[in-house]
């Protein structure tokens, strides 16, 4: 059988089938690593390394019956039972489609260049560079208005990704960066979080949305709900009657399922997800299972949420179904067990719901969040190094060593103040620094 | 005063001047981080993270009199005493040029695309991806000849970089990767090290070159000396009458000083370095100091080597000269103290010379190398995390978690075997794997 996508769902299915003697598994992914997406925002905000939240798929799937293939899946030919990849075809008896989702730019694909989303390690590294580069540019910028634009960050979408990114970025501007700069005060940076719906974390109970908003505002994040973005370019964001001048826009809104499932020619929902059967198969295709963020599953009339635990449960369920079929055992419908979900606001602050019952906020919620994330990280090494890096950041009050710009961005910096007599650099403006001391400049 | 380049020389000068009250320092670099280049090959071979061997320049230089500017230096106008950067000019009273060197492709700049060198973090990440991608491609490749090409790695230049890269890569193919692949045996990979001169590590005593060659060959590196490369393309390397078919060529030969010094209009040596005065100034320009790999300094008729300790000594010497000048003290000529240099061959193997006297090889040399490198790494965090990562790799017999391909390389993979009846993937060929077991493929 063939599994496309080694995210939470696909990997869990592969691991569960790796123990079966009577199955041969091929796992296809376009990257060589499994990614622990829930911590991606911490790579983007310089807390963690790329390797801390990822693991080579090959080293996770060492079973003898499992093969891993680096390949870009193009389409499924369900009649010929073939997965078409770039450069070839892979026949299957059963297929598990677990190719995930990305953010949706609604009807504005051109916004993707200006406002990158956060889905891959490359995205995280790119966003990290954009944030750090903006402060470098602000430090160089002689014009106060343009300096303010460089120090304004707009995050679109207040789901968990947007909220976590906004909180981490605001914390960074207040605690990690201030003492590094001479001409700007990074604590003056604006972090604006825009949400089209009436509240942040819309999937959470209203009381937790309120708490999250209050905590974000304590971190000096400007939260704007009911703010539908109508225009976006490299220098501004427009919503309603308002326009914010900014050089850094990050995108965390909407859900667009991987386009691979379109080739299945089965009914899709508005986000492009397959409306799966209770066995998690595509309607009419009993050998094609669809799981994780590409699946629109329902339970008691409520959608199963697009989060890691749901994808993992689906992966395990599909593995069981396949084994049961081979053993001619009766098959069972998928049932989602809601263990809860959490979103972090800042250092020691989170909100969340445990077992669909207990609403938590503040430090207790953060402790559950941290424990669960460490526990679910793949591999001993990742757990150890994530804890060490968190410990380092905690004890140094926000110290962040991953503040790397590895690309040469120097050519994109703003022009310095041009003045043939005076020094080209304006004198440092920070009050703490004795700019006017009579030091002979040598 | 202005310092261009925050490598070993520039950073040391800035740190030494950071304590002086009567000097204001501006450090200009096109990257935001200082890079510990001697360990770059360990990022390229998946042992260390990018952040483990780098530190944000701003966090290293926290003195009140020091300013950091991210900018690309274009030229020096020594008459107007101005450093010209992309987007502006920075006037100086004294200038320290510490912009380093890159590899030289001799008269073939077009080879740079095919055979990347190892000088920046981006280079290291790119080389890491090329190495890992080659094995992924080999695993997919149905044609045995092309598969061998993907599993052939040629490294050009057997200076310290080339030797260390070859040793680490050979170790990786034998110990870190074998159990990850099903269709290829990574232990069959060829690592070929080409050197135009008659021996490897030409700057070292002959006896150590011999020892290094023997140790490399024990690691199954094919060492070819006196091998001048005459042609190079995406599929082969030609030297003498020989041609090696390979998809991965890495470059570690030649030295080309940063082109910035050409604008000084002073005498340069063949590698483009400034022939500095005993005070390390450019001839005829007493306010322009040139240090590190852009300086061609001599001592007792022998060139000062282009290594980190020499650059650091130069940086400290220039800082002292500047302070002495301000204090109207007599100035002293630069004297290089040769503390030694070491090159690592493999796990627990190195060669080197200590204090220009003691020749060392094997484990003792490796211990000195490791100790010195840990001691000179910038910052407590880097030391701790490099040691932890080394410990992890050591105790897991080569376990390498940084095996990340973060770019989407899937589109560049070779075509799968096309055969409409049989499965598109050829059956696994590894003897350990029971390819012919009568497992029902589901």
TrEMBL record, chains A, B:
Listed InterPro entries: FAD/NAD-bd_sf, FAD/NAD-binding_dom, NDH-2
The entry's keywords: FAD, Flavoprotein, NAD, Oxidoreductase
FAD/NAD(P)-binding domain sequence ranges: 2-315
Taxonomic lineage: Bacteria, Pseudomonadati, Myxococcota, Myxococcia, Myxococcales
UniProt organism field: Corallococcus coralloides (strain ATCC 25202 / DSM 2259 / NBRC 100086 / M2) (Myxococcus coralloides)
Protein EC: 1.6.5.9
Protein's name in the database: NADH:ubiquinone reductase (non-electrogenic)
UniProt biased composition (Low complexity): 432-442
Reaction equations catalysed: a quinone + NADH + H(+) = a quinol + NAD(+)
Family per similarity comment: Belongs to the NADH dehydrogenase family.
Span list, region Disordered: 419-442
An MF annotation (GO) of this entry: NADH dehydrogenase (quinone) (non-electrogenic) activity
């Amino acid at each position: 059988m063939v599994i496309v996508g080694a995210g939470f769902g696909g990997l869990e299915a592969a691991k569960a089938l790796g123990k079966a003697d009577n199955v041969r598994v091929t796992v296809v992914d376009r990257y060589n690593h499994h990614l622990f997406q829930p911590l991606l925002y911490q790579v983007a905000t310089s807390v963690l390394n790329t390797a801390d939240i990822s693991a080579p798929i090959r080293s996770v799937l060492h079973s003898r019956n499992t093969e891993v293939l680096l390949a870009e899946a193009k389409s499924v030919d369900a009649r010929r039972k073939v997965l078409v990849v770039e450069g070839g075809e892979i026949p299957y008896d059963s297929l598990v489609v677990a190719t995930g989702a990305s953010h949706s730019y609604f009807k504005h694909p051109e916004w993707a260049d200006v406002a990158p989303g956060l889905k891959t390690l490359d995205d995280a590294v790119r966003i990290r560079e954009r944030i750090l580069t903006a402060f470098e540019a602000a430090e160089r910028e002689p014009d106060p208005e343009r300096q303010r634009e460089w120090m304004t960050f707009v995050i679109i979408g207040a789901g968990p990704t947007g909220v976590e990114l906004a909180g981490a970025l605001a914390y960074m501007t207040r605690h990690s960066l201030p003492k590094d700069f001479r001409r700007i005060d990074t604590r003056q940076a604006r972090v604006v979080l825009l949400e089209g719906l009436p509240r942040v974390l819309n999937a959470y109970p209203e009381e937790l949305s309120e708490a999250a908003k209050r905590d974000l505002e304590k971190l000096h994040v400007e939260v704007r709900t009911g703010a539908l973005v109508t225009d976006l370019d490299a220098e501004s964001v427009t919503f309603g009657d308002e326009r914010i001048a900014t050089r850094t826009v990050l995108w965390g809104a909407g859900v667009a399922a991987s386009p691979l499932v379109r080739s299945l020619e089965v009914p899709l929902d508005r986000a492009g997800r397959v409306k799966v059967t209770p066995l998690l198969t595509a309607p009419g295709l009993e050998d094609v299972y669809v799981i994780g963020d590409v699946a629109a599953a329902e339970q008691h009339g409520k959608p199963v949420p697009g989060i890691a635990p749901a994808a993992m449960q689906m992966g395990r369920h599909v593995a069981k179904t396949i084994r049961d079929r081979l053993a001619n055992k009766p098959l069972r419908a998928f049932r989602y067990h809601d263990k809860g979900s959490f979103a972090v606001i800042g250092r020691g602050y989170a909100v969340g719901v445990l077992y669909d019952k207990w609403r938590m906020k503040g430090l207790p919620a953060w402790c559950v969040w941290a424990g669960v994330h460490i526990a679910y990280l793949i591999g001993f090494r990742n757990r150890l190094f994530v804890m060490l890096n968190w410990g380092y950041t905690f004890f140094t009050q926000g110290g962040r060593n991953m503040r790397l710009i590895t690309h040469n961005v120097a050519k994109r910096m703003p022009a310095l103040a041009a003045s043939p007599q005076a020094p080209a650099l304006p004198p440092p403006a920070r009050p703490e620094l004795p700019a006017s001391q009579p030091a002979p400049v040598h």
